[in-house]
Amino acid sequence: MQISVIGSGYVGTTLAAVLADAGHDLVNVDLDEEIVSQINDGVAPIFEPGLDELVAEHAGTQLRATTDYDDIADTDVTFLALPTPTDDEGKIDLAAMRAGSRSVGEILAEKDGDHLVVVKSTVVPTTTEEVVVPTVEEASGKTAGEGFDVAMNPEFLREGTAVYDCQEPDKIVLGVQDGAAGERALDTLHEVYEPILADHDASVVETGLREAEMIKYANNAFLAAKISLINELGNICKEYGVDAYEVADAIGLDHRIGPHFLRSGVGWGGSCFPKDVAAIIHAAREKGYAPELLEAAVAVNERQPQRLLGLLDTHTDVAGKRVAVLGLAFKPGTDDIRESRAIPVIEGLIERGADVVGYDPVATENMREHFPDIEYADSAAAALEGAHAALVTTDWDEFEALDGEFDAMADPVVIDGRRVIERRDGLTYEGITW
Q1: What 3 state SS string does 356-402 have?
Q2: How many CB atoms lie within 10 A of CB 429?
Q3: Cα torsion for 23, 100, 105, 155, to the nearest 10°?
Q4: Cα 174 from Cα 208, distance rounded (Å)
Q5: pLDDT values of the chain reduced to their tens digit, one per residue, 434 residues
Q6: CA-to-CA distance for 134 and 79, rounded, in angstroms?
Q7: Cβ count within 10 A of residue 80
Q8: Distance between CA 268 and CA 16 in Å, rounded?
Q9: Pairing with 184, which of 68, 160, 293, 304 sits 20 to 30 Å away (CA)?
């Protein structure tokens, strides 16, 4: 198929590269000329394991990038993979979605034949019907279901494993309108995903537009709440001298609970959980419903970095002392620092007057833009040398191998927020929930 993807972020670039790898012809549209040049040169514009290889393999053949919306006229399907950030109150900003929808509509005004517009971005229920469809209709002069079809196909990609998640999804959710237009949209989307479904047995959920929009939020809200719940239980375990990980291993054997997302620690961050939970809380409140459980999940998450710092305070006064922060990305496998738990930890250390040195295998430059005045080390060993304390905020595998490096610390106090360091003689060690 001939497919266009509007947007070249984590979702858009990954989707385009994976669909090109599946045999489709992809054009990736983005207004950033530098990003377009990178993709056409075979270089992924973001750090994501496996993505560089796919972009390098298919750039110039089945994958190309452009700044010109006119190129979507030659495609059968257009995916809108545009950012929908939230403001301080949690309301999503649809400016990029409106602009993209308008540009697509202007191209469709001059196009004859069928075209499917698919919302891939995370948007609150009714957005596709009440924002995207009217915008495309106005710009194109055509009516949805007659001049073009529409669908909502949310993504469920995890940064660090996005390529894998796209190639081997647990589920594919296809939200469409009722009637013949919906059936056409489903047929087209099944054709898009046929190569992936042929190689991988995933559940396909066919539903309405609003249901598809809500499934994405429900998915992330549930996972975020599950993490906050195990962190809350872990905090209680810590007060009683109980190892929360032993408790989690046991409860995870219950098939109703399962073992996933039961690693208690310093909390969740990233581009999805904070934004999506805030957005659904705001959307619920706009409808007059108070989502107290979700608000509590956020509150627990926001407290975890302070608990980590509180444990540090029980062992040492860090004023004027070197303190290492191991891990700057919000999770391993990505250079994304958005809502990283390292950020409030570093802020707390600066407030305490510490001399902070940060280390991360890939996220240093991104964090340097956020904290330009702290020191950054080229290795964990260099960060630990001469440090009076170390705080672990990201569970990179390389931290598990640290051993003799702690001997170079001036005062070997380690506060572990991710359970990656083993207790050993010579270390003053605290786990956040164990």
Answers
A1: EEEECCCCHHHHHHHCCCCEECCCHHHHHCCCCEEEECCCCHHHHCC
A2: 16
A3: 40
A4: 8
A5: 999 999 999 999 999 999 999 999 999 999 999 999 999 999 999 999 999 999 999 999 999 999 999 999 999 999 999 999 999 999 999 999 999 999 999 999 999 999 999 999 999 999 999 999 999 999 999 999 999 999 999 999 999 999 999 999 999 999 999 999 999 999 999 999 999 999 899 999 999 999 999 999 999 999 999 999 999 999 999 999 999 999 999 999 999 999 999 999 999 999 899 999 999 999 999 999 999 999 999 999 999 999 999 999 999 999 999 999 999 999 999 999 999 999 999 999 999 999 999 999 999 999 999 999 999 999 999 999 999 999 999 999 999 999 999 999 999 999 999 999 999 999 999 999 99
A6: 17
A7: 27
A8: 27
A9: 68
Place of tokens 């469920």: 156
Contact criterion met (CB below 8 Å) for 213 and 127: yes
Tokens of 345: 């930890």
Nearest alpha carbon to residue 293 among 308, 306, 280: 280
- Separate counts of helices (H) and strands (E) for the chain: 16, 14
Q: Considering the entire predicted model, what is its pTM?
A: 0.94
User: Phi and psi of 318, rounded to 5°?
Assistant: -90, 5
Residue 15: how many other CB atoms lie within 10 Å? 25
Q: Please, what is the angle between helix 292-313 and helix 209-239, to 10°?
A: 40
Nearest one of 260, 299, 262, 298 to 434, comparing CA atoms: 262
Treating both helix axes as pointing N-terminal to C-terminal, what angle do 273-286 and 209-239 enclose, rounded to 10 degrees?
110
Q: Would you say 27 and 14 are in contact if contact means Cβ atoms under 8 Å apart?
A: no
Which tokens hold the place of 426?
């010579």
SS3 of residue 155 by DSSP: coil
3-state class of 177 per DSSP? coil
Q: Which residues are catalytic?
A: 272
Question: Cα 417 from chain centroid?
Answer: 20
Q: Which of 257, 350, 368 is nearest to 305 (CA)?
A: 350
Beta bridge partners of 2: 25
Distance in Å from the first CA to the final CA of the chain:
52
The three-point CA angle 373-378-381 to 5° equals: 110
Instruction: For residue 119, give the DSSP letter.
Output: E
Q: At what angle do helices 51-58 and 10-21 cross, to 10 degrees?
A: 50
